Amino acid sequence: MYFFTADEHYHHNNILRYCGRPFYDIEEHDVEIIKRFNSVVSKDDTTIHAGDFTLKKGKDAYWYFNQLNGNHLCLRGSHDRWLPKSAPYIWEKMIEGTYVVCCHYPLLSWPHSCYGSIMLHGHSHGRIPPYRRRMDVGVDTNNFYPYSFDEIRVIMQSRPDNFNLVKR
């Protein structure tokens, strides 16, 4: 199963104040996000992290992955200087008949948007409204849990088509 999340901001003290996250300190923040993640993601699942995973660097950044269940792909975001330069900014895949595009930044138009694909992003911390088949999957929008693809599919069923949809 696929999961999507963004903007975890592990080890980023200022994120508590910037986003009004309800944790006493960054240690409580990190422990709770890891706990919530592991409560829904199994060891066989794959999670796409759409940027701003951690401010840690080098081996310290990878420590978090050892705490999280499943397989992981990290996309480059605003604070991901720890990632190798080859790390992707965008990820695309057909999942169960739905073309999914994932990027840290919200896009107004994205690959295959004219054919009904969905766009998953972070960066805005829930501060911009959803737009058609675009969705903020950041932890601030889901009580600090990742979204499963099944949850996203249900949400998208109630959304209007993309503005540039080509009727086939």
Describe the structure.
This protein is an alpha/beta fold and 168 residues long. The protein has one domain (2-157): Metallo-dependent phosphatases (Purple Acid Phosphatase, chain A, domain 2), CATH 3.60.21.10. The chain contains four helices and eight strands. It has helices spanning 15-19, 26-40, 59-67, 149-157, and strands spanning 2-5, 46-49, 71-74, 90-95, 98-103, 118-121, 134-136, 147-148. The strands form two sheets. A four-stranded mixed sheet has the order 3-2-1-8. Strands 4-5-6-7 form a four-stranded mixed sheet, with no helix packed on it. The two termini are 29 Å apart. The model has no long low-confidence stretch (mean pLDDT 94).
Give the ordered list of helices and strands. Answer: EHHEHEEEEEEH
Going by helix content, strand content and strand pairing, the class is alpha/beta
| Overall structural domain count | 1
Distance between the termini: 29 Å
**What's the CATH topology name?**
Purple Acid Phosphatase, chain A, domain 2
Instruction: Count up the helices.
Output: 4
Could you give a quick summary of the protein structure above?
The chain has helices spanning 15-19, 26-40, 59-67, 149-157; strands spanning 2-5, 46-49, 71-74, 90-95, 98-103, 118-121, 134-136, 147-148. The chain is an alpha/beta fold and 168 residues long. The strands form two sheets. Strands 3-2-1-8 form a four-stranded mixed sheet. Strands 4-5-6-7 form a four-stranded mixed sheet, with no helix packed on it.
